Amino acid sequence: MDRIIVEGGRTLSGEVQVSGAKNAALPILAASLLVDGWNTFYNVPELQDINTIGLLLEHLGAKVEKDGHTIKVDASGLCETEAPYDLVRRMRASVLVLGPLTARLKKARVSLPGGCAIGARPIDQHLRGLEMLGATVELSHGYVEVQAEKLRGADIYLDTPTVTGTENLMMAACLAEGVTILRNVAREPEIVALADLLNRMGGKVEGAGSPVLTITGVEALNPVEFSIIPDRIEAGTFMVAAALTEGNVLVKDAVPAHLQALISKLRLAGATVTEEHNGIRVQGKRPICSVDVKTLPHPGFPTDMQAQFMVLMTTAKGLSVIAETIFENRFIHVSELVRMGANISISQNSAVIRGVKHLSAAPVMATDLRASASLILAGLIAQGSTEIHRVYHIDRGYESIEQKFSQLGAAVRRVK
Ligand code: EPZ
């Protein structure tokens, strides 16, 4: 098992290039199932999760060709309707083939993704939406089976603004007959990116980024070329790293409009954040001011940045409160940070962080993707050498993370 070793005490400076967004690439690759012919996707991050969905698309009968950050997919040969357990268990985002398969083949059998470290992760909203579009949904032997003679437009209200739920229903509605209204949808930049792709393919999706989507079904969609948007969570991770280490870092291609909540909180914490023509520059300053945060659906503060921002608060002046409202168990990183000397206590869905003078290095365990990144951040400011185990979690969502941190002057290396 690989480990990552971080020597604390370095100040980060220079430029870092943000990769394409994992959480935009996954639904966009799934959307290639909606059309016959070759789609070409540029700026796709090279990550384990992208490999996994590539395997799934091939299993379903599509042709997939990968050349660095460019991936081509042709789903003309789509024939299989089942997403097997051994692929879905590796990556719950495999559930994103549910909508396209139902739309194209009128049939889908997808292993239920099951929970993960951060929560139960139900897909009830995905399934209810497909039923309202005219599909029948059955659960058996750990699989969800969806059948539909024909999908018809419907007026659907989501109980919760689920990101992948919105994406699944957008894709299904594009090939349904008539108009679908999706209400209380997710508004993340990745939703807007998927809508851009579907419209480029000939779909009719209006309102992306707002709480209501209006989707007019079409007979067929056409293959396109499309470039993946930058990863706002990777960008935010490097922005926090600069603030933590009193650094001066330009995060290239980071999009300010995608990160307004984080930018505002970093400024309240005392960092200088400036929008430049090719990215966002962050200059850290100590003492760090303590700031309260509450995670919310976009445009609120992103849950995927909660662990990283908590590290910034561990050595801030005073007390801060971080409330996690999206997932029921997303404080797994807290016990690891406490082992490094942080003073954090949890009650219900809130963590209370009392700033300490410094963190001290310790061997720690990565658990979920973003919690793992926060351990690297903690290592940057801890006294000594922090050893992070189970780094495969990190490789799922961060491309060449140790190279990118090393380029900025951090002492981060991987040990096989
Ligand atoms: C997406 O997951 C992201 N993954 C997650 O990023 C991200 O943390 C999450 O959105 C929230 O922003 C991808 O885009 C591939 P949700 P998703 O459905 O769609 C509840 C990462 O680190 N819910 O928006 O699975 C659910 O329990 C990952 O890259 C229902 O109740 O999240 C959760 O509490 C981690 N019923 C909340 O909604 C449903 O049918 C948000 O879940 C669906 C969701």
Brief rundown of the structure:
The chain has 416 residues and is an alpha/beta fold. It has 14 helices and 26 strands.
Can you describe this structure?
With 416 residues, the chain is α/β, with parallel strands linked by helices. The protein has 14 helices and 26 strands. It folds into two domains: 3-18 and 230-415, UDP-n-acetylglucosamine1-carboxyvinyl-transferase, Chain (Alpha-beta prism), CATH 3.65.10; 22-227, Enolpyruvate transferase domain (UDP-n-acetylglucosamine1-carboxyvinyl-transferase, Chain). It has helices at residues 22-31, 48-59, 85-88, 98-105, 124-132, 163-174, 189-200, 232-244, 260-268, 306-314, 332-339, 369-381, 392-395, 401-407, and strands at residues 3-7, 13-17, 38-42, 63-67, 70-74, 82-83, 107-111, 136-140, 143-147, 155-157, 179-183, 204-206, 212-216, 225-227, 248-252, 272-276, 279-283, 293-294, 319-323, 343-347, 350-354, 359-360, 363-365, 382-383, 385-389, 411-415. The protein has a four-stranded mixed β-sheet with strand order 23-25-1-26. The protein has a four-stranded mixed β-sheet with strand order 2-15-17-16. Strand 16 and strand 17 (279-283) form a beta hairpin. Helix 1 packs parallel to helix 2 (48-59) and helix 10 packs parallel to helix 12. It is elongated. The protein binds ligand EPZ. Ligand EPZ is lined by residues 22-23, 26, 93, 119-126, 160, 162-165, 186, 303-304, 326-327, 369-370, 397. It catalyses: phosphoenolpyruvate + UDP-N-acetyl-alpha-D-glucosamine = UDP-N-acetyl-3-O-(1-carboxyvinyl)-alpha-D-glucosamine + phosphate.
